[in-house]
Amino acid sequence: MKEFEFGDPSVSISRAGMGPFLAAFGAYQSRGEKVVKRHLGVEELSADPSTRYPLSGYLSAMRELQEQFGFSFIRKMGTLVFEKAVFPPGLDSAAKVLASLNQAFYMNHPNAEEGKIGGYQWKADGDARGIMFCDNPYPCSLDTGILEGITSRFSANWKVSHDEAMPCRAKGGDSCTYVVEW
Question: Which of 45, 95, 161, 170 has the fewest C-beta atoms lying within 10 Å of its C-beta?
Fold first, then answer.
């Protein structure tokens, strides 16, 4: 699926799912929220974590933020998302977190059927290495940052690289493939 493109108005993201991205703005959270609220057509974001918003509006806001601040900014936001995101309990290693990323993704998009909005497919390739295939509508920059945030939390010797032989959503492709090592 191409980045930022998802037109099905029935698919939503929960307020809890938006929270980590907005919290990653730190002192500038109100600035990020202003852009998101405008794209969602609301005056205020609900404090209720179960409130749902149209995914297409949230993606439009993220596109604007990437256009304003750049790929590196959204990538940095991705590294901070993992610190604030809700994941299933018992995840005490990079391998476990990476393997559960798709589950966490769908927890934050509560009315999306599995596979409808793409996702994260992890394939371990050794004890501290694997391949992550992403075909969701979020930007390559955000997913790169999320993977960097996960691996850096569990190891000082980590590396996330985009498989240049594969498509890239930032270049018009429908997916991205990352080699993840720690």
Answer: 161
